[in-house]
Automatic annotation (TrEMBL):
<dbReference type="GO" id="GO:0008762">
    <property type="term" value="F:UDP-N-acetylmuramate dehydrogenase activity"/>
</dbReference>
<keyword id="KW-0963">Cytoplasm</keyword>
<keyword id="KW-0573">Peptidoglycan synthesis</keyword>
<dbReference type="InterPro" id="IPR011601">
    <property type="entry name" value="MurB_C"/>
</dbReference>
<keyword id="KW-0132">Cell division</keyword>
<feature type="active site">
    <location>
        <position position="335"/>
    </location>
</feature>
<protein>
    <recommendedName>
        <fullName>UDP-N-acetylenolpyruvoylglucosamine reductase</fullName>
        <ecNumber>1.3.1.98</ecNumber>
    </recommendedName>
</protein>
<feature type="domain" description="FAD-binding PCMH-type">
    <location>
        <begin position="15"/>
        <end position="188"/>
    </location>
</feature>
<dbReference type="InterPro" id="IPR016167">
    <property type="entry name" value="FAD-bd_PCMH_sub1"/>
</dbReference>
<dbReference type="InterPro" id="IPR036635">
    <property type="entry name" value="MurB_C_sf"/>
</dbReference>
<dbReference type="InterPro" id="IPR006094">
    <property type="entry name" value="Oxid_FAD_bind_N"/>
</dbReference>
<keyword id="KW-0560">Oxidoreductase</keyword>
<keyword id="KW-0961">Cell wall biogenesis/degradation</keyword>
<dbReference type="Pfam" id="PF02873">
    <property type="entry name" value="MurB_C"/>
</dbReference>
<keyword id="KW-0285">Flavoprotein</keyword>
<dbReference type="InterPro" id="IPR016166">
    <property type="entry name" value="FAD-bd_PCMH"/>
</dbReference>
<dbReference type="Pfam" id="PF01565">
    <property type="entry name" value="FAD_binding_4"/>
</dbReference>
Amino acid sequence: MNIQENISLKAYNTFGLEATAQYFTEVKTVEALVEVLSLETFKDTPKLFLGGGSNILLTKDFEGLVIKIDIQGIEKVDENENHVYLKAGAGVVWHEFVMHCIAHDWAGVENLSLIPGTVGAAPMQNIGAYGIEIKDVFEKLEALNLETLEIETFTLEQCHFGYRESIFKNSHKNQYVILNVTFILSKTPNFHVEYGAIKDTLKEMGIEQLSIKAISDAVIHIRQSKLPNPAEIGNSGSFFKNPEIPKAQFDTLKEKFPHIVSFPSVNPELIKVPAGWLIEQAGWKGYRDGQIGVHAKQALVLVNHGGGNGKAIKELAYKIQDSVNEKFGILLHPEVNFI
């Protein structure tokens, strides 16, 4: 076991923000994780568990123990005529898992290509894109109870998935560490091309024969054209959730803003309004203040141009919230976790 002191977290968060961990360690097995958490020295020490660091905003140094979860492995655990069941370690890079599925012609996650982060973080907020969410391919997960240090299994129903929500962000927050996730992939693809610009992009790319790889390629093309690469400019992808508002409120807004963009919600009584559109209409797209700002191509993405700090990004997020709320009467909620 290697526990280091005063370690920079700049390389461990996609915003590329400079912050220091008082203590830091990386675990590659469940046994190593249990061993670290059993140490009397750190029993009462605050702990931060890191995956890919793509969904956090570090606003200050972390006075405690940062544990990087690097549990690897993708294993076929079951199979039948129509489906394959894959168990992936929490530390597996999400996009690598998607590429593994596509390489084996197993369908279900192709629309989720190029989403940053790890497998372990995916169910925490029920990641989703282009009409698909984790819950659509989820079988179960195993998580370590931080109080008892025992492994518990959570089924689809027990996770209480919602829009960018699960019990691990709400009632069970900071009580468990996800160790692995089992997914159900299909041997017969059910293509989802109706959401977003997938259909148009496939046409632009000259793809006539639909396949899960073609859809993945289209999604990657769209994301790369709209979203900045964290390796080039610090960001965490979508910073805010797309708000869902009552239909009556939307109808009122449409009278005032005829060109307002919307999508149907799972709840027929609600309408989903793109947060990026709201932020852009409030005048923030391309905004820059020193080394931080809002991306020029996608207003939903807050960025660190280099040398920025998390506290300034947090303050910018609050200003954007206030501005959108004042203009539209809609309060935006961050997807990103403030640390």
